[in-house]
Amino acid sequence: MMLFQRKKAEMVRPEDALPGRDHPISTAKMHHVFNRPLSNDVPDGMEEAMFGMGCFWGVERMFWKLPGVHMTLVGYAGGATPNPTYDEVCSGRTGHNEVVRVIYDPEKITYEDLLRTFWEGHDPTQGMRQGNDIGTQYRSGIYTYSEAQKRAAEITRDAFQERLKEAGYGTITTEIVDAPAFYHAEDYHQQYLSKNPGGYCGIGGTGVTCPIGLEA
């Protein structure tokens, strides 16, 4: 790996992170697929989830297609720089991951259903990369909003690890941590593959199915 790529794949120390800014960067006003105001709010009766699986363009499309998903938003989380821009995140000097925030109706789709899409939708064994995309912003991550979500993430991780091992894959590198602050990505990133159907999507799964039973 070239020096520049190696640097991008190393997590920046918080004291060395870019300073960012006090105000949020501007983003889209409407969701391009759902045709409703793009909002971070969680309506009554709905729940929230957040995942990092590589380039957020393709990841967001996976989740907006699921029945029961009310809202998807792409953004940045897990770093030290407040209100970062895309260019800053791509520099490797913010520590943020490209993430998708999902607002969903648990009466129509469960958190375990979302986890199945997460595990099967990318290769969670690649560390600070996903396919040809290299950098800390492409790491695999589950960012949980409750102890129940954390338990479900850990149980399904352990079950999926066994399936991956049988298929010849290595160790899962997914970080499972409490949900950090979420910062909206710029307007053009929101629902990018709806606006640009032929656009780049650099993620791909392992072809291994994930058992979801939470009896363990």
Automatic annotation (TrEMBL):
Matching entries from Pfam families are given as: PMSR
Q: Known EC number(s)?
A: 1.8.4.11
Q: Which UniProt keywords apply?
A: Oxidoreductase
Instruction: List, in alphabetical order, the Gene Ontology terms for molecular function in this entry.
Output: L-methionine:thioredoxin-disulfide S-oxidoreductase activity; peptide-methionine (S)-S-oxide reductase activity
UniProt KW Oxidoreductase keyword: yes
Q: Under which name does UniProt file this protein? A: Peptide methionine sulfoxide reductase MsrA
Top enzyme class: oxidoreductase
An annotated GO cellular component: cytoplasm
